[in-house]
Amino acid sequence: MQRVLWTAAVVAAATVTASAHANSVSYASYVVEGRTVHAVIRLPLDDVDLLLRLDRDLDGQVSGEELDASTAAIRTYLAKHLRVVANGAPVAESLERVGIWRDGSAFQYLEGHLSFQAVRAVGELSMHTDFLIELYPSHKTLAHISAAGHEEPFTFDSTATYERRIAPDRMTTVAIVVIGVAILGLLVMARRRKTAAAIVMVLIAAAAQADVIMSAPALNATLKTLERLKRQTAAQARPDREEALFQLGVEADRLASIMNLEVESHGMQERELLDIALGRTKELGVGVAYNRDKKKFFYDGAAFAEYLTEAPRGAHAAAAEFKLLSYRFYQSAATDIAPLVASADAKKRFLARYPGFDANAELRLYLAVDYRDLHRRYLEAGDHANAATCRQLARAQCLRIVRQYPRTEQADAARQLLRGLTLR
Beta strand 296-299 with 108-117: parallel, antiparallel or unpaired? Predict the structure, then answer.
């Protein structure tokens, strides 16, 4: 039996099945008047907040003052991801204002009003957007474009460019350059934005049908919580600092678990979100990293260790120590006798101090695996007496788990372990 994450199944059971990123669609409106292109861009606020960190006081809301303070960053972002070419020449943008817009379900969007001034009346127009590709490489922006008396919908993504010749007599010639986007045929036929949005949402949902495990809004909320707790650990006195330390460890541990479940379920589908999580936690001084040998993300447990130093008999002492023991167990190579003996002894001390701890079934399973591994190492070293002792200790732990915690995952694992410890 390998040292695997026994809790993965429990975490998986808590996930909700839904279409991946169903809410992460942006909207845009473009109006061409003479030599001016007016644009209104609406991007999901949670996504933009994750990228640009608009919510500076970490209260979960983006205020008008915070928007004002972030105007330069918003302008830079919009300019980077929205390109307008008029009459064959790129046109610079002018950001007129930013605000918050809510749709019918009160979902919040960052709304930016921009204008583009060409040197003469726009006769040929080309536009391309690739908003939020840092989070979702296939992100789409549903647009409504009005030019020379003609109105039409268009869907932008990283592969789609809108191109049009605007004739003075208002005769319409539409050329749409699209690479590999099958849904656009339906969108061109749609005449109302709600209809277009509904079509896109249905098609995205039909294509994805994936469990949403790691999302930009959830990651954004977690990173804000981590940053807020880091501030509290630096500013607050005991006992508030101790509580903040423990909660910091809990949040970091939860983030690592979600990252693992995401990779196990979807591979590197959410590479962008995973990279953001690793980059931001490193910036915060929160040690979440990938262990190449174990092929898992782990939290280094620093906040739990600091909590135990400051509050060795605190309300969360048992939970903090259990987490540290579990990290060592999962990351152990189990190849050397001395570290295995030390690991088993630490678990025995924990069980003696906290006989009623609610995760002791899992800890006893860790201990049984330690003894099983010691049995193997002693056999390899030719020490048959110690090998036999450790085999008996492993069996005793397994039998106790089966007896004391029946109908649990740990009991099932203990039964499996027992089969490998039976003398033949």
Answer: unpaired
